[in-house]
Specification:
- It is a single chain.
- This protein is an alpha/beta fold and 247 residues long.
- The chain folds into two domains: 169 residues, HAD superfamily/HAD-like (Rossmann fold, 3-Layer(aba) Sandwich); 68 residues.
- It has ten helices and five strands.
- The chain has a five-stranded parallel β-sheet with strand order 3-2-1-4-5, sandwiched between helices.
- Helix 2 crosses helix 5.
- The two termini are 16 Å apart.
- Bound molecules: magnesium ion.
- The site of magnesium ion has 7 residues, from loops.
- Magnesium ion (MG) binds next to loops.
């Protein structure tokens, strides 16, 4: 009973909310590492390195071989026992191409296991879906394109209105998410916020307890504290709003 994936728990929570309340509700998602699988971009860049340099370091690598958050590429290469002399040029190529506009456009992919939850939310006439990303404002157009690609059946429901970008710089992601959520809860009945970075969830503990904080259990930056009230695979079953909702 303790090992349901987060998206199944959220699906149940949402269904339950709809059955018990006639109010509209909203659910807010982070994008990278929550909806978009960043490992696709990583793998494409690494395989491109092989192609450009006529090497074969990554021939046999697949998505599930990528076990470390994207910025720790050096650590990942060491874990794969890539020879030390190769690591610097690979990292340099990776830094140059990773997050380039074309690569971001070409590699955006939804975690396949989320398609059922997305269908449930977008097909519900009483539910609004919002996106709150740490990506800076200059990436807005590209981000809308990414969302239209990964959620192509619901593209009509995804406009600038649904998308909250980071209006400052990368170092202000937590503050910016806080600002977006303050704004969203002033207008909408936000019942859940989902993010893969514990630091973002930690910055949002001001949200009312009726808003479920959900940890998308993918890869994320190391050494971050998880807020106590956060829904994780390990503790969700004891999370009071969820237990109450199921009663
Ligand atoms: Mg993220």
């Amino acid at each position: 009973m303790n090992h349901y994936p987060w998206y199944e728990v959220l699906s149940e929570y949402h269904r339950n909310h709809l059955s018990k309340s006639s109010e509209r509700c909203a659910i807010v998602f982070d994008i990278d590492g929550t909806l978009i699988d960043p490992r696709v971009m990583q793998l494409v860049v690494l395989k491109a390195y092989d192609q450009v340099n006529e090497t074969s370091w990554f021939n046999d690598k697949e998505l599930n071989d990528l076990t470390i958050y994207e910025i720790y590429i050096r650590q990942q290469l060491m874990e794969w026992a890539i020879p030390v002399a190769e690591i610097d040029p690979i990292c340099e190529f990776y830094q140059q191409n990773h997050w380039s506009e074309q690569i971001v456009k070409d590699t955006a992919a939804l975690y396949p296991e989320l398609s059922g939850l997305m269908r449930q939310l977008f097909e519900s006439s009483r539910t609004d879906v919002f996106f709150c990303t740490g990506r800076p404002e200059f990436m807005r157009k590209l981000t809308i394109e990414n969302l239209h690609k990964i959620l192509s059946s619901y593209r009509d429901q995804i406009t600038n209105y649904n998308l909250h970008m980071n209006s400052r710089d990368w170092e202000y992601v937590v503050q910016e998410k806080r600002r977006s959520l303050e704004q969203l809860i002033s207008v909408h009945n936000v019942i859940a916020f989902v993010d893969n970075e514990p630091s973002n969830l930690n910055g949002l503990t001001f949200l009312p307890m009726s808003c479920l904080l959900v940890h998308a259990d993918t890869t994320y930056k190391a050494n971050q504290a998880m807020p106590d009230r956060c829904l994780q695979i390990s503790n969700y079953i004891n999370y009071p709003p969820f237990v109450d909702a199921l009663r």
